[in-house]
Amino acid sequence: MRSYVWTLGGGFCLVLPAFALGGSGAWWLPRSVALEAPREPLQWCSVPPTAVLERRPSAIRWRPYNVLRYELFLDWVQLMARTGVGAADRVFRGLNRITLRVDSPGIQQLAFDAAAMSIDSVAVNGIPVAASQPVGDSITVQLPFSVAAGDTVVVEIAYTSRTGRNLGLYLYPKGQFVGLGPGGDSVFVEERIAYTMSEPEDARYWMPCNDAPHDKALATLSVAVPESVSVASNGWLDTVMQLPSTVPGVRAVWVYRWTDTVPIPTYLMVVHASRYAHIADEYVRPDGSRVPLLYYVWSSDVESSDTTGRRYNARYAFRNVPQMMRAYESFFGRYPFVKYGMAAVQPFAYGGMEHQTMTTVNRSWLRGMAELGIAHELAHQWLGNLVSCATWNDIWLNEGGATWSEALWLEWLFGAEAYQQRMERARTDYLEQRPTVMQLPLYAPPRSLIFFYATTYAKAAWVYHMMRRMVGDSLFFPALRAYLARHRFGSAETEDLLASLQADIPNPPVPWRTFFDQWVYAAGHPVLEILPSVSPLPNGRYWVRCLVRQTQSGSAVPAVFVMPWVLKFRGSDGSYAEHRFVSTAREQLVEVELPFFPSSVQLNAEDVLCEYTVAPVSVAPATQPRAVQLRVVPQPVQGEGVLEFQLPEAGSVKLEVVTLTGASRVLYQGFLSAGVYHFPLRMESSAAGVYAVRLWMDTQPAASVVFQWSP
Ligand SMILES: [Zn+2]
């Protein structure tokens, strides 16, 4: 038996795969024991960084223009004045004035997303053009003049929305029975309510637009409603204008104008209209600056002082928001918007929706039992809104970030144990769906599963958690803030986060490319079997050999997860030792010398989304492992490398190059006598990346070494 333990600074080690050999003799290699190693500063010895590989192709579907501004006007006077919710009651008229920059020369028409509406008129830079009707869920506007790249064009589209049902726009009548509350009470719609809910692609049902998350624009939303109806929306409430009414039964019309001072994607735009009561609060920063907090709830929801969850009590439910903002500013940086708000709606198919600066919450959250939901939506203002997923393939960036942030809020409030408890619940949520999660990569889930909780939320939260644990807080949080700053008020694909981490944390224990390939672009998680055996040594210490097997399976699941791990050894007298290693093979021997007999062996599963079992510790007689020394020079290999190895005895030898997914290519096979060998390592036909060389002796794997090929 033999092992490779490279001892680097701080007593941390990289253990490479090693395999048993029978017989006796040969010599020992240096090995080390790390006792009670501190988590920081970062001292992991690393797998050689992956060569810079080409960026995966972008999945953004560009149109030949970029929207700069939406000026949307919605006439909801009749919509809110009626009492029914039939198809005719849902009809409303709108006007969207879209200012855009042309990105491609020579285009003659512009396509917009628009569905379930009739187009009443269209003008381009004030010139009326034909109003073509939606085909499928888009419309085409013919340009009445030629345009050049960089030109600014203003397209005004007047339309009548006719969804006929709850789709994009949701409308409920006063008095509708919603269901039974948690106390068995009957819940009704308190006031007529209309609201929009667009994620991922339903904004097109209530306004013509470029309904794609990468195309953010400034926006002004003006909404006309009967007097005494409130409108809650994104950004800043500029004005509320009163106009005379021409609608029978409506004494006056109020027009609310909300303005976004920073870009917003269409899926984060929202309008809520109902007879709302308003609650004002504020977050006061340590430097004295303030963020206004505005809440819109039904008046019955501010009357109770109940804190048991039996009654709606908005003030109680929202009481911790200022503290949450302080917590999240400490993790993510300054809150980036002019205000924050929440509007309660009911019925609502979801718990909450992080509409930019005006989250929609399910009224059931006002019973005070949904604090993590409130924290989740607030965290989205950074992870999702400040930087949005650029495509729906990247939705894990949003939802993983916000779900992980629930744990951050608990950590800020109660400490590390509460954080871990929330992560453990996410692990359970994920593992309970094993048959599905082992097939479903985080990146680019099928459209029907983009909001599948087990992966898009729970596993994705673990990806953030694992990145944090892998490099430590002192590196991870500054890098996360740098990523948010780089893409501030824009959007990001998965590859953008990867590139940002590569730039800011260039030497992680596992190359970022490898980490993302395993955890984001592939499915599943490591399933480990650990078989420990202990041999007493003549010096009174113990030689511990742990065979670590990765047994995960599935066509989309990596055969090998390359990850940093910590083995934790405990003795019956309370002794404790840790040993760190990076897994690089499906089957790997980790060896360590301990000053005590380890009666229990555990893995740091709190840091890695995994399942593992440990066989009972077996006791084996002490044997002197014979070792084959093997190394690759130089590192990284450029052009031709050299494979150096020393055989302690003669035997039948096979040398092969293995990819991290297990594919192999034989370099040499034949009988060799004991001695030192230098073997040319030619990789011209291989892609850049991390590989291993494996040496077999007499049909037994005897040694392997990882190297980086960087052509
Ligand atoms: Zn979310």
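^ zinc ion complex. Confidence is low (pLDDT under 50) at residues 1-52. The chain has eleven helices and 40 strands.
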